[in-house]
TrEMBL record:
Domain of life where this protein originates: Bacteria
HTH cro/C1-type domain boundaries: 13-68
Residues in coiled coil: 79-113
Gene3D superfamilies on file: lambda repressor-like DNA-binding domains
UniProt xrefs under Pfam families: HTH_19 (PF12844)
Keyword Coiled coil assigned: yes
Keywords for this protein: Coiled coil
Protein name: Helix-turn-helix domain-containing protein
UniProt source species: Fibrella forsythiae
Length: 148
């Protein structure tokens, strides 16, 4: 059984994740840190995870090294440009998630109408997607492309 070592660094790592709006798995992937390492730090079972973890968090997220190590100062290095990029990236992710949901709904709709004799007009549904994507999806469902 592992011994609880320190929860201060773990608390700061969890706070960082919450401020970034990411899960442990997302942080692990984005910062290239093994998920078990992140979990052990957050749970307080790793007092000194090593410089490579701090370096990856600092570089990937613009974290203030002093805050990460000691808890003093601001969480992020003050960089208006970095903050702007983060806001833009989050907006882009939300937009892409919305488009994916629209595509999923459209595919469900197309599958339901597949049984009928008539292919639907997909122009309103697929208007936001590239013609290649529309062709690929409709060919997969109908065996031939649907004109949109």
């Amino acid at each position: 059984m592992e011994t609880l070592v320190s929860s201060e660094l773990g608390h700061r790592l969890k706070l960082l994740r919450q401020r970034l709006g990411v899960t442990g798995a997302q942080m692990a992937e984005e910062a290239d840190i093994p998920l078990p390492v992140i979990k052990k730090i957050e749970q307080g079972y790793t007092a000194n995870p090593g410089f490579y973890v701090a370096e990856k968090l600092i570089v990937r997220y613009g974290v203030n090294a002093n805050w990460l190590i000691t808890g003093r100062g601001e969480i992020f290095v003050e960089s208006p440009e970095l903050e702007k990029q983060l806001i833009e990236a989050k907006a882009e992710v939300r937009e892409k998630e919305s488009l994916i949901q629209m595509l999923q709904r459209a595919m469900v709709s197309l599958k339901k109408t597949k049984r009928g004799a008539q292919q639907p007009d997909v122009t309103p549904v697929f208007g936001l997607f590239s013609p290649n994507l529309v062709t690929s999806v409709t060919t997969r469902i109908y065996g031939t492309p649907v004109n949109g």
